[in-house]
Amino acid sequence: MKLAKVLGTVVATQKDAKLEGLRFLMLGLWGPDNKPAGGSIVAVDAVGAGVGEMVLFASGSSARQTASTDKKPVDAVIMAIVDSWEIEGDEKYRKGEAEA
Questions:
Q1: Which CATH number fits domain 2-83: 2.30.42.10, 2.30.30.60, 3.40.30.10, 2.40.50.220?
Q2: What pTM did the predictor assign?
């Protein structure tokens, strides 16, 4: 799993039939220090994430392990919305708190 921030939505009206009904979000890769890590990826949203939220996503064959992505041509899926994280007792992020 990797950490990311939801940057926005991606709309694709023409797509493979197996992708019908899936929602796509643009993610910015994020570091453990709560700062952008560089890079981005488009992922299927399996949990109802919103723009600005921190999420965990899986890529590769693991992306096809959720109920909504099983046997679908998907390479990245959001499977969790992050509430908080800490490193060595130092809280780096808590959902809903203003960013520094």
A1: 2.40.50.220
A2: 0.91
